[in-house]
C-alpha cells in the first residue's frame, strides 16, 4: 500500500508490513541485460533492528534453483532513509548472459520489534555505476573497486581500528604540553574563521565589505533557500521535506534549477546549513550581543524606530523579525538591558533550533554514519565543506545537547578517518581533492573531539599524531600519476598536470594546515613545508602576475583567470612564522628575517588597487568544494600587509630564468614582467581534459601551445569566450577542422606514443654583469595521430564526425622551440597529413583580439588597425608586430597568412555562439602536406624597430641565430652573442641517436635527447653542456592510450628508470663542475652524475671526448662545466 508519511520522490512511498519470512515480488515488463544492469531503491525505517532484508534479482524464466542472478542482504539496523545501488557484476559468478526481470524482497525470519518499511524510487536500472558499499550493503562478493578508485574507499577505511590507548595512567608533562598545543591549534582555527579579538562593529574596509557580502549572499540567501526545503515535523515527530540526493544520483537539483522539488545535498550543506551556522556563530558572540544592545536599545524603546531596528538586527529576515518583535512584546516598555538581552538570547536559541532541525532532516535523509546514499563518488567534495565546518563551529552546542558523539561518527565515516592509522602507508602522496578537503576536516574532527577524561585526552593525542603522520605522507612527492606533488614541482590532478583549478585550492588549504600547526609539537615536517612552499613559488614564476598558462587549465580554458588572487591566503600563511603568533593566533610584529622571499612575493600579489584583487577581498565566496574566503583569513591578510609595510619590506621583483617541468611537458621562460610557456604531451602526459559542456574544443591545447604573457592585462587578447578560433592556438600545428569536427564531448586525456617531449635548462657561467645570458630550453613534440570515424582513438587528435571523408586521417609532425633571452626560434619539420581534405594543415603564430579602437598590428613597419578587415599572404621575409608588442620574423618562402576579420565561434561549452574581431597570423602547409616544414622567430616585448633589426640581421652575413639542421634526425640552432663577453650557444634536439654532426661542440649522442651547449668564444677554453632525457622512462610495460588505461602501478608505485647518455665532443675536456636542474652538486658526487671517458684508456690523464651523463631520471637537466684540454676552434 502507498503512504504519504515518508517519501523520497513526489509525496508517497510504498509501505510494506510483513510477517517473518514474507516475500515481496515485483516484476519488470522486460529483461534487463548485461553485467552493469542492476537495481536502485530507497528504504525508510522508523526503528532499527539487528536483522537483514534479503534482496534477490531473478531471471523468472529459468528453473527456480538457478534463477537467482544476484542475492544480497540489506541491513535493517538503521532509522531514516538508506539507499541501495547494486549491479549484477557484483555477484560472485555470473551466467554468460546476465539478465533479470524480477526483484524479490524476503523479510527476516526472526521476530523483530518493527516489521514495517517504506520503499521509494525503486528503479530497474539498465546501467548502475559509481555505486558505493556501506554498512547497509557491505561488499557482496569482495570489493568491486581497487585502490585507484579514491572516492570508493569509505567502507574499507571504516573497518580500521585505531590503536588502543591507556585511559588510566596520568598524562606525562610532555603529553600535557602536546595537549596544550592542540588547544592552541584550535584557537588558531577559530581565529581563521574570524578574529576573536575584533568585534563586528569594528569591521572596516575590505573586511566590512566581505561581511556585507556574507550577509547578502550567505545569510539572507540561506534563509530563502531554507524555505524551499519545506521541512516540517508532524505531531508524531515525523520529519519531511524536499528529498535530498548526492552528486551521482539522477535525482536532485540545485536551488537555481526549477525542475523539481528534489535537492542536491551538497547545495543544502553549503548554501543553507553552513551560512545559517555562520550567522548563528557570529550572533551568539558576547561582543555582538553587547554592541547590539548598546547600539539599538534606544531604538527598541521607540515605537517609531523599533521595527527598523529589528530588521537591522535580523538582517531583513521577516520570520526572525516577527519572532524578535514577539519576544520584545513580552516585556513592558521601556525595556532594560536585561530584557533586550533576553530577547536576543531567545532569538539565537530559535536560530539554533532551526539549525538542529536542519541537521536532523539531513540525517533522516541518509547523511549519517555507515550510509553511502547510493554513491559517495565526489561526495567528499560536494557535501563535506559545508557540513564539516558547520560541525566544528557548533561543537559546543552539539556537546551540550548530547549530539556531539553522533555527529563525530558521521564526520569520521565520510572523511574515512581510518586512513590515518596506517602503520605503513600503502602509497606516498595523495590527490589534490584530499588536500583541498579532508586534510582540514580530519583536523576539525580531532580538535572538536571530547577531552575531559584521561582516555579522551590520549585518544586526542593519538589521533593528532596519526593525522600529522598522514599529512607528511600526503605531502610527499612521487613520480607516479596519483600524487599531487611531482619531483619537478608540477602539481597533478586526474593523473596529469592541472593549473588553474583543484591544485590552487589544495595548495591554499595545505598552506593553512602548515600555518595552524607551525611552532607546535605537531608541526609539519621540513620536507612538507618545502614541498608546499616551492610549488607556491613555482606558480608565481609561471604567471605574469595572477593567471597561470591556459595550456594547463585542464577542462577550464581561460587565459585571463587570475587564480593566484584566490591563492593570496596561501602566500600569507607561508609568510608568517610561529614566533610572530600570539597564543590565540594573532600576529605580532613581522621581521624581515622571516621568510622574506615569501613575504615579498605576497606583497607583489597583494595589489589593493587591482579591481580583481579588490573583488576577491570583498567577496564571501561560497564554493561547495572548499571554503577559503573566511573573515578571519582576510583579517590575517590585512594584518600581515600592515605589519610588513611597517617593516619596510618591498614587493618582490619577478624572477628571471628558465624552468622545465618535464612531468608536465611544460617549460617556462621568464624575463621580469613577461613570461612565455610552451606545452606538449607524450606517452606519459595526457593532452587535455573536457566534459560534455566544458572545453569541448580543447584538443589542440597541448599541441605545442606557446603562450606569450606580456602582462596580466595583455591576456585579454586571448579571449576563448568570444570569437576564439580553437584551431589556431598560438604555437600549435593543427588541422583547420570545423567546429563540428573539432568537438570532443567526453573524449579527453589521451596519450601519444612520442617519448621525446620536454625540455632542458642550461645555467649561465658568466659574470652577473651579463644578466641576459640566462636559462634556455629546447622543446620538441612528435605526433603520430589517427583520426577515425568510429572513435577508435589512439593518439592526440580525435574527430567526431558523420562523414566518410574523415574515416582515416593521419597527421604527424616534429616541433622544436629554442629560447635565448628574449629571442625564441620555432622550428617544425616532417609535417605530414593524409586524407584530411578539404581541411588544411597550419601552424599559428598568434591570434589577438580587437580590444580597443586603437588596437593595431604592424606588418613590415606598416600599421594595421584591427577595426578594419584585412588579409594578405607574404612570400618574402616578414617582420610583424602583434597587438602586445611581440615581434615575429618569418624567413622568405614561408607563406605567412595574415587576416584581420570578425571571427564566429562557440564558447567552451560547445553551445553558446560567440564572435569578435581578431588579427591572426599563420603558416599554411596546405591540404595533405608531405614533409612540410617551417621556421620563424619571436622577439618578445620589442617594437617595430627591434623586429626590423632582427630581420635585417638574419638576412646579413652575421645573423643572430642560424638553423644548422632541420630534418627528421635533428633540429640544431646556433646563437651568437656579440657582446663584450662573446659566446656561442647551441640548441640540439636529437630525434635519432648517433646522428653525425660536423658543426658545434657536439658530434653525436648515444640516445635521443635534448641538449644545450655553450662555448666561450673568446679563447674557446670552456664548454658547458646540459642534457635531458625528458621521457620519464617509467617502469611500466603498459602502452597508455587513455588515462583510464592506468592501473595500480601507474597510479601509485611506478618510478622513472635511469638512462645513460654519452655525448661525443670535438675536443678532449676535463670536468670542472656539475649542476642538476640548475643547482650545484657537491664535488664528491660528480661521479654519480657524469664521467669523462679518456680517448686512450692507457693514458687517462689525456682526458677524452666522450662525456657520459649517468642515471638521468625524472626528466632532470644535468649540466657539465667542462674545460678544454687544448686550444681548439669550434665552428
UniProtKB/TrEMBL annotation:
Taxonomic superkingdom: Eukaryota
Cite a single GO BP annotation.
glycosaminoglycan catabolic process
For this record, the Gene Ontology CC terms, alphabetical, are: extracellular region
Which GO MF terms does the UniProt record name? carbohydrate binding; carbon-oxygen lyase activity, acting on polysaccharides
**Keywords annotated in UniProt:** Lyase
Family annotation (InterPro entries): Chondroitin_ABC_lyase, Chondroitin_lyas, Gal_mutarotase_sf_dom, Galactose-bd-like_sf, GH-type_carb-bd, Lyase_8-like_C, Lyase_8_central_dom, Lyase_catalyt
Lyase N-terminal domain: residues covered:
3-137
UniProt cross-references to Gene3D superfamilies, sorted A to Z = 2.70.98.10, Chondroitin AC/alginate lyase (1.50.10.100), Galactose-binding lectin (2.60.120.430), Polysaccharide lyase family 8-like, C-terminal (2.60.220.10)
Spell out the SUPFAM superfamilies in the cross-references: Chondroitin AC/alginate lyase, Galactose mutarotase-like, Galactose-binding domain-like, Hyaluronate lyase-like, C-terminal domain
- Lyase catalytic domain location is 354-611
Write out the coiled-coil annotation as residue ranges. none
Location of the Polysaccharide lyase family 8 central domain: 668-763, 811-941
The family note in this entry says: Belongs to the polysaccharide lyase 8 family.
Q: What is this protein called?
A: Chondroitin sulfate ABC exolyase
Amino acid at each position: 500500500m502507498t503512504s504519504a508519511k515518508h517519501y523520497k520522490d513526489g509525496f508517497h512511498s510504498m509501505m510494506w508490513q510483513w510477517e517473518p519470512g514474507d516475500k515481496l515480488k515485483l516484476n519488470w515488463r522486460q529483461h534487463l541485460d548485461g553485467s552493469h544492469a542492476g537495481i536502485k531503491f530507497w528504504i525508510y525505517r522508523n526503528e532499527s533492528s539487528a536483522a537483514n532484508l534479503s534482496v534477490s534479482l531473478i531471471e523468472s524464466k529459468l528453473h527456480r534453483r538457478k534463477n537467482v542472478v544476484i542475492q544480497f542482504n540489506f541491513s535493517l539496523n538503521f532509522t531514516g532513509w538508506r539507499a541501495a545501488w547494486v549491479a549484477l557484476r557484483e555477484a560472485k559468478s555470473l551466467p554468460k548472459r546476465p539478465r533479470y526481470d524480477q526483484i524479490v524482497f524476503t523479510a527476516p525470519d526472526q521476530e523483530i520489534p518493527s516489521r514495517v518499511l517504506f520503499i521509494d524510487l525503486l528503479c530497474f536500472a539498465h546501467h548502475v555505476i559509481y555505486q558505493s558499499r556501506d554498512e547497509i550493503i557491505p561488499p557482496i562478493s569482495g570489493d568491486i573497486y581497487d585502490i585507484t578508485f579514491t572516492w570508493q574507499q569509505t567502507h574499507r577505511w571504516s573497518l580500521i581500528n585505531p590503536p588502543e590507548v591507556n585511559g588510566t595512567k596520568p598524562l606525562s608533562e610532555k603529553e600535557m604540553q602536546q595537549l596544550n598545543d592542540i588547544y592552541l591549534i584550535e584557537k588558531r582555527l577559530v581565529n581563521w574563521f574570524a578574529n576573536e579579538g575584533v568585534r563586528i562593529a569594528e569591521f572596516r574596509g575590505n573586511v566590512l565589505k566581505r561581511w556585507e557580502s556574507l550577509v547578502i549572499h550567505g545569510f539572507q540567501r540561506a534563509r530563502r533557500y531554507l524555505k524551499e526545503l519545506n521541512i516540517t515535523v508532524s505531531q508524531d515527530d515525523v520529519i519531511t521535506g524536499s528529498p535530498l540526493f548526492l552528486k551521482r544520483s539522477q535525482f536532485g537539483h540545485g536551488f537555481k534549477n526549477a525542475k523539481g522539488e528534489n535537492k542536491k545535498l551538497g547545495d543544502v550543506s553549503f548554501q543553507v546549513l553552513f551560512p545559517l551556522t555562520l550567522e548563528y556563530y557570529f550572533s551568539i558572540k558576547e561582543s555582538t550581543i553587547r554592541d547590539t544592545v548598546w547600539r539599538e536599545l534606544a531604538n527598541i524603546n521607540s515605537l517609531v524606530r523599533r521595527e527598523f531596528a529589528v530588521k537591522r538586527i535580523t538582517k531583513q529576515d521577516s520570520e526572525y523579525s516577527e519572532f524578535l518583535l514577539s519576544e520584545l512584546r513580552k516585556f513592558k516598555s521601556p525595556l532594560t538591558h536585561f530584557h533586550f538581552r533576553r530577547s536576543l538570547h531567545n532569538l539565537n536559541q530559535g536560530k539554533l533550533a532551526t539549525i538542529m532541525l536542519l541537521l536532523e532532516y539531513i540525517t533522516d535523509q541518509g547523511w549519517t554514519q555507515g550510509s553511502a546514499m547510493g554513491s559517495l563518488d565526489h561526495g567528499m567534495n560536494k557535501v563535506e565543506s559545508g557540513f564539516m565546518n558547520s560541525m566544528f563551529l557548533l561543537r559546543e552546542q552539539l556537546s551540550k545537547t548530547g549530539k556531539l558523539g553522533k555527529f563525530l561518527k558521521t564526520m569520521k565515516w565520510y572523511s574515512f578517518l581510518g586512513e590515518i592509522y596506517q602503520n605503513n602507508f600503502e602509497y606516498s602522496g595523495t590527490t589534490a581533492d584530499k588536500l583541498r578537503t579532508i586534510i582540514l576536516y580530519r583536523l576539525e574532527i580531532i580538535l572538536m573531539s571530547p577531552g575531559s577524561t584521561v582516555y579522551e585526552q590520549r585518544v586526542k593525542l593519538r589521533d593528532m599524531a596519526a593525522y600529522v603522520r598522514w599529512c607528511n605522507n600526503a605531502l610527499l612527492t612521487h613520480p607516479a600519476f596519483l600524487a599531487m606533488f611531482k619531483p619537478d614541482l608540477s602539481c597533478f590532478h586526474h593523473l596529469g598536470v592541472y593549473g588553474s583549478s583543484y591544485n590552487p585550492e589544495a595548495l591554499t588549504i595545505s598552506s593553512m594546515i602548515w600555518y595552524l600547526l607551525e611552532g607546535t609539537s605537531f608541526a609539519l615536517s621540513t620536507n612538507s613545508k618545502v614541498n608546499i612552499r616551492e610549488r607556491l613559488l613555482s606558480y608565481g614564476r609561471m604567471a605574469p602576475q595572477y593567471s597561470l598558462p591556459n595550456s594547463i587549465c585542464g577542462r577550464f580554458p581561460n587565459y585571463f583567470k587570475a587564480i593566484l588572487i584566490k591563492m593570496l591566503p596561501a602566500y600569507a600563511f607561508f609568510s608568517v612564522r610561529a614566533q610572530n603568533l600570539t597564543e590565540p593566533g594573532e600576529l605580532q610584529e613581522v621581521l624581515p628575517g622571516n621568510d622574506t622571499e615569501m613575504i615579498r612575493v605576497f606583497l607583489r600579489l597583494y595589489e589593493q588597487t587591482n579591481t580583481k584583487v579588490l573583488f576577491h577581498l570583498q567577496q564571501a565566496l561560497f564554493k561547495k568544494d572548499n571554503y577559503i574566503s573566511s573573515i578571519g583569513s582576510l583579517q590575517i591578510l590585512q594584518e600581515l600587509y600592515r605589519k610588513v609595510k611597517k617593516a619596510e619590506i618591498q614587493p618582490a621583483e619577478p624572477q628571471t630564468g628558465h624552468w622545465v617541468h618535464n612531468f608536465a611537458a611544460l617549460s617556462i621562460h621568464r624575463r621580469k614582467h613577461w613570461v612565455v610557456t610552451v606545452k606538449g604531451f607524450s606517452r606519459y602526459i595526457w593532452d587535455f581534459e573536457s566534459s560534455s559542456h566544458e572545453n569541448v574544443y580543447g584538443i589542440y591545447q597541448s599541441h605545442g601551445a606557446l603562450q606569450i604573457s606580456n602582462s596580466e592585462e595583455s591576456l585579454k587578447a586571448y579571449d576563448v569566450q568570444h570569437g576564439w578560433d580553437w584551431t589556431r592556438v598560438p604555437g600549435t600545428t593543427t588541422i583547420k577542422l570545423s567546429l563540428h569536427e573539432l568537438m570532443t564531448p567526453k573524449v579527453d586525456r589521451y596519450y601519444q606514443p612520442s617519448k621525446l617531449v620536454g625540455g632542458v635548462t642550461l645555467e649561465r657561467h658568466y659574470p652577473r654583469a651579463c644578466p641576459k645570458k640566462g636559462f634556455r630550453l629546447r622543446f620538441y613534440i612528435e605526433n603520430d595521430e589517427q583520426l577515425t570515424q568510429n572513435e577508435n582513438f589512439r593518439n592526440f587528435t580525435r574527430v567526431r564526425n558523420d562523414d566518410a571523408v574523415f574515416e582515416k586521417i593521419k597527421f604527424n609532425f616534429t616541433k622544436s622551440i629554442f629560447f635565448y633571452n628574449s629571442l625564441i626560434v620555432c622550428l617544425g619539420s616532417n609535417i605530414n597529413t593524409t586524407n584530411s581534405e578539404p581541411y588544411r594543415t597550419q601552424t599559428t603564430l598568434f591570434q589577438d583580439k580587437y580590444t580597443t579602437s586603437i588596437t593595431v598590428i604592424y606588418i613590415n613597419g606598416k600599421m594595421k588597425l584591427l577595426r578594419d578587415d584585412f588579409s594578405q599572404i607574404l612570400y618574402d621575409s616578414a617582420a610583424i608586430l602583434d597587438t602586445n608588442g611581440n615581434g615575429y620574423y618569418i624567413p622568405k618562402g614561408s607563406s605567412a597568412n595574415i587576416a584581420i576579420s570578425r571571427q564566429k565561434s562557440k564558447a567552451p561549452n560547445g553551445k553558446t555562439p560567440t564572435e569578435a574581431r581578431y588579427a591572426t597570423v599563420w603558416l599554411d602547409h596546405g591540404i595533405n602536406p608531405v614533409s612540410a616544414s617551417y621556421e620563424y622567430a619571436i622577439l618578445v616585448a620589442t617594437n617595430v624597430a627591434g623586429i626590423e633589426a632582427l630581420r635585417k640581421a638574419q638576412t646579413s652575413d652575421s645573423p643572430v641565430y642560424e638553423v644548422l639542421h632541420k630534418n627528421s634526425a635533428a633540429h640544431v640552432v646556433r646563437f651568437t652573442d656579440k657582446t663584450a663577453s662573446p659566446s656561442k650557444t647551441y640548441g640540439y634536439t636529437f630525434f635519432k641517436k648517433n646522428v653525425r654532426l660536423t658543426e658545434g661542440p657536439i658530434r653525436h649522442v648515444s640516445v635521443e635527447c635534448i641538449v644545450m651547449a655553450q662555448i666561450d668564444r673568446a679563447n674557446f677554453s670552456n664548454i658547458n653542456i646540459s642534457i635531458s632525457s625528458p621521457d620519464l622512462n617509467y617502469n611500466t610495460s603498459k602502452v597508455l592510450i587513455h588515462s583510464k588505461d592506468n592501473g595500480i602501478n601507474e597510479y601509485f608505485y611506478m618510478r622513472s628508470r635511469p638512462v645513460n647518455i654519452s655525448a661525443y665532443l670535438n675536443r678532449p675536456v676535463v670536468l670542472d663542475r656539475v649542476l642538476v636542474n640548475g643547482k650545484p652538486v657537491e664535488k664528491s658526487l660528480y661521479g654519480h652524475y657524469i664521467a669523462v671517458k679518456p680517448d686512450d684508456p692507457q693514458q687517462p690523464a689525456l682526458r677524452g671526448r666522450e662525456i657520459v651523463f649517468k642515471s638521468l631520471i625524472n626528466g632532470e637537466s644535468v649540466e657539465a662545466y667542462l674545460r678544454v684540454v687544448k686550444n681548439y676552434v669550434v665552428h
